[in-house]
From TrEMBL:
Pfam families: Beta-lactamase (PF00144)
Membrane-spanning parts: 494-514, 535-558, 578-600, 612-629
Keywords assigned by UniProt, alphabetized: Membrane, Plasmid, Transmembrane, Transmembrane helix
Organism: Halogeometricum borinquense (strain ATCC 700274 / DSM 11551 / JCM 10706 / KCTC 4070 / PR3)
Protein name per UniProt: Penicillin-binding protein, beta-lactamase class C
UniProt-listed PROSITE patterns: TAT
Signal peptide: none
Domain Beta-lactamase-related: 52-359
Gene3D superfamilies attached to this UniProt entry: DD-peptidase/beta-lactamase superfamily (3.40.710.10)
InterPro entries for this protein: AmpC-like, Beta-lactam-related, Beta-lactam/transpept-like, TAT_signal
PANTHER family reported for this sequence: BETA-LACTAMASE-RELATED DOMAIN-CONTAINING PROTEIN, D-ALANYL-D-ALANINE-CARBOXYPEPTIDASE/ENDOPEPTIDASE AMPH
Length: 634
């Protein structure tokens, strides 16, 4: 099991991350900075060396860095080349980068601005402020802006509707948030589940309260006062690919359909000014966007699963490095990776964004150097040992799967099951250590409080959560895993599917073959009840075959249409595909009834009854798997 997720790891695993093809530049190119800087030659040298290593060691084409120290810009610099433009050097004052989920920093800043101006209350139901969409009243407690800002509204993780493959398919925000509304799977405030929909909904709230389009509001009330002249939420700004003769729409295949969550394009210089606003009590060059109290409110802790865990500020993630507290946000979309971090108590902030196939690794190379400089961590050797068996040791063991999968009600559950297929296996050693395994990673933990465990060597913790007295979840920082049963394990389901498929095929192949053999060689025909039962069972099996064929045909049809892909945004008629296996499941239940009657009445031969029962049971197992993965129309 990996160690408890850092803010960067948590975000990169909760959002769809793509890869592209950008060739690393052989040299470094620096752009002129238009911002007034307090020059720090040693900082410039350290960052330049780190950027050079990043572009040399990883498949990354360019990056930009902004550092604010004591509230003043200490460095803005560009390295390598612009996106898909090897002949154009990165310039911090004009080269655009996609910043993925760091877009949310601007969104939450705008939302807090409305709070600061008494236009909305953080603890009021968001339904009171939203015009474009009505959030279902699934639970007694309403969802508030505070819940959205801490990713605790209780929504399932939404997949369909977040991205498109062409800019002309990007919808107005109001349409995006009112379509494929994610299900509410838990009461608000109970558990953190990172989702783009929360930020998108907050962006629409900004639009509905202000009476302006979201992008227009942020431009007028955040970007323009701060002098962020190049920042935009437009889906395909031409400066993203500045090379002569290249158009964004012909070069890029990823566009955010939820701009407040992941649609910002910006420069190093612009983000330096946003850093300054957060570090200078909301003021940059005499222009105020937030009151000092509002900035303090944004940076304080609003949610944590445990007092000894890092938690959430207002839309920003906490991260502890020794005694230093950071708040900020990471971002990653196809070909881009980004980091926005603040050390409010020290007046320090940093912004790094890179592009390329290995943008995340390149970005982390520079971020780690900067964090080591401004928030160094002393590595004290420790070796915790247990004093005995942990409380409720017999209940801790088992397999835990991401709640992104277990708490999924939509038809794209299987997609998240594939993306997040590495579970966490937990067992308790004889000496009382809790051992967790995830992939190739094995970690050991010692209980320091009931159900709270600390790593034996690192300053990291995990927490087991209970519901109604039963242990149900494992929390790694803000990442949550739910304990699952034996039949929910993917390996077990894989074997079940394989055995069930083979068994089902024996009926589909053997019954017609036996009928043909009797026709050729003669023989006693089965009783009419057996014939009816086999035809019914075959129809149930046919439902599975037709479902697979319908999925394949839908994919082919949609790919040939001038519309978003099936993965991006399925058409309305796609729901009809799932009616096919639903009907097949009902028919299989009828077939099971025929089998039960045959056993009760003693009809057919014993071999026929056993084989028929096995085939129907196997078909039922496959339908149960489809039901588990939300692939039936019920």
């Amino acid at each position: 099991m990996t160690s408890p997720l850092s803010r960067r790891q948590f975000l990169s695993r909760s959002t769809a991350v793509g890869a592209g093809t950008v060739v690393a530049a052989s040299g470094l190119a620096s752009g002129e900075s238009s911002a007034t800087q307090t020059r720090d030659d040693s900082l410039e040298s350290v960052v330049s060396d780190a950027a050079e290593r990043a572009l040399s060691n990883y498949d990354a084409g360019g990056l930009t860095v902004a550092v604010v120290k004591d509230g003043e810009v200490a460095l803005t610099e560009g390295y390598g080349h612009a996106y898909q433009s090897e002949s154009v050097p990165v310039k911090p004052d004009e080269t655009l980068f996609r910043v993925g989920s760091v877009s949310k920093v601007a969104t939450w800043t705008a939302a807090m601005q409305l709070v600061d101006r008494d236009k909305v209350e953080v603890d009021a139901p968001v339904n009171d402020s939203l015009d474009a969409v009505e959030i279902p009243q699934t639970y007694d407690e309403p969802i508030t802006l505070e819940h959205l800002a801490t990713h605790t509204p209780g929504f399932e993780l939404r997949g369909w509707g977040d991205t498109v493959n062409k800019p002309q398919y990007v919808r107005p925000l109001a349409e995006s948030v009112s379509t494929n509304v994610p299900g509410r799977v838990r009461p608000p405030g109970e558990l953190c589940q990172y989702t783009n929909y929360a930020a998108a909904l907050a962006g629409q709230l900004v639009a509905d309260v202000s009476g302006q389009q979201f992008g227009s509001y942020v431009t007028k009330h955040v970007f323009e006062p701060l002098g962020m002249t190049n920042s935009t939420f437009r889906p395909a700004p031409s400066k993203l690919v500045p090379a002569s003769g290249k158009a964004v729409k012909d070069t890029v295949s990823f566009y955010s359909d939820v701009a407040p969550a992941s649609g910002l394009h910006t420069t190093g210089n612009d983000m330096a000014r946003l850093l300054q606003a957060h570090l200078n009590d909301g003021v940059v060059d005499g222009e105020r966007i937030l009151s000092a109290d509002a900035v303090e409110e944004m940076h304080k802790q609003w949610y944590t699963p445990h007092e000894r865990f890092d938690g959430m500020a207002f839309g920003l993630f906490e991260e502890s490095r020794g005694d230093t507290r950071l708040v900020g946000h990471s971002g990653a979309v196809m070909d881009f990776a980004c980091e926005f971090s603040l050390i409010p108590e020290d007046g320090t902030g940093l912004f790094v964004v890179a592009h390329g196939t290995e943008a995340s690794s390149a970005n982390n190379e520079v971020v780690d150097v900067l964090l080591e400089r401004f928030a160094p961590v002393e590595t004290d050797e420790k070796q915790l040992t247990p004093s005995g068996m942990p409380e409720r040791a017999d209940e801790l063991g088992g397999r835990y799967r991401s709640v992104s999968v277990t708490d999924k009600t939509a038809k794209d559950k299987a997609i998240f099951g594939y993306l997040k297929r590495q579970p966490v296996d937990v067992r308790v050693a004889d000496d009382g250590r809790v051992i967790t395994e995830q992939g190739d990673s094995v970690d050991e933990w010692v209980e320091i409080e009931p159900l709270l465990f600390e790593h034996v060597e690192k300053d990291e913790k995990i927490l087991f959560r209970t519901e109604d007295g039963e242990i149900t979840h494992l929390l790694q920082g803000l990442g949550a895993y739910e304990q699952i049963g034996y039949l929910q394990q993917l390996s077990v389901q894989g074997w079940l599917a394989a055995v069930a498929t083979v068994t089902t095929l024996t009926g589909l192949l053997w019954w017609p073959a036996a009928r043909a053999w009797r026709h050729v060689r003669g023989g006693t025909a089965p009783p009419p009840s057996a014939t009816r039962a086999r035809w019914t069972a075959a129809a149930g099996i046919g439902g599975l075959v037709l479902f697979v064929a319908a999925l394949a045909a839908s994919s082919i049809v949609v790919s040939g249409m001038d519309r978003p892909t099936l993965y991006n945004r399925p058409p309305a008629w796609f729901d009809a595909v799932f009616v096919v296996p639903t009907v097949g499941a009902i028919v299989t239940l009828v077939a099971a009834g025929f089998g039960a009657r045959a056993w009760y009445d003693g009809e057919w031969s014993l071999v026929s009854r056993v084989h028929y029962s096995l085939v129907v049971a196997a078909t039922g197992v496959i339908y149960w798997l489809l039901h588990y993965w939300n692939l039936l129309a019920v």
